UniProtKB/TrEMBL annotation:
Database matches in InterPro entries: Ribosomal_bL17, Ribosomal_bL17_CS, Ribosomal_bL17_sf
Family indicated by similarity: Belongs to the bacterial ribosomal protein bL17 family.
Highest taxon above the source species: Bacteria
Bias-annotated ranges (Basic and acidic residues): 157-166
Listed name of the protein: Large ribosomal subunit protein bL17
Organism name: Candidatus Bacteroides avicola
């Protein structure tokens, strides 16, 4: 019987699944956001959140435990130096999964998984992109500017003539 042994095997052997989740966790730590399928993102969330909790306590043992999962000393260093400082006051829920639609080739449901405390960096990039204007808006702005100037000129002349008449 297989009671209480329910988790997503992701169609892989145990060693392949372990290596894939470790690689995805390293990418998430380095890049703060990765795009993947929803099933893999959910499995990664269960894999990486205990590591993030472990990183709050910066001891030699916790570093060794995290390194045994990740096998990448640069990712472990970044996790303990930068990320653990940002998540220190958060009691859990360090990652967020946002669904982005379906993949074109096989219609797999896609999403991106990101570290919650790093979303303001991504939001600033989006705001900067919204500032750019399109070609059409430049034409409209250029056409509107002379029209406003022309509208202001007769009004200014009328006020001058009324002031002179008084």
């Amino acid at each position: 019987m297989r009671h209480n042994k329910k988790f997503n095997h992701l169609g892989r052997t145990a060693s392949h699944r372990k290596a894939m989740l470790a690689n995805m966790a390293i990418s998430l730590i380095k890049h703060k956001r990765i795009t993947t399928t929803v099933a893999k993102a959910k499995a990664l969330k269960k894999y990486v959140e205990p590591l993030l909790t472990k990183s709050k306590n910066d001891t030699t043992n916790s570093r060794r435990v995290v390194f045994s999962y990740l096998q990448d000393k640069y990712a472990v260093t970044e996790l303990f130096k930068e990320i653990s400082v940002k998540i220190a006051d958060r009691p859990g829920g360090y990652t967020r999964i946002i669904r982005t639609g379906h993949r074109l080739g096989d219609n797999a449901e896609m999403c991106f998984i990101e570290l919650v405390d790093y979303d303001e960096n991504m939001a600033k990039d989006k705001v900067a992109k919204k500032v750019t204007r399109t070609r059409r808006s430049k034409k409209n702005a250029a056409a509107a500017a002379p029209a406003e100037a022309a509208a202001e000129t007769p009004a200014a002349e009328e006020t001058k003539t009324e002031a002179a008449a008084e």
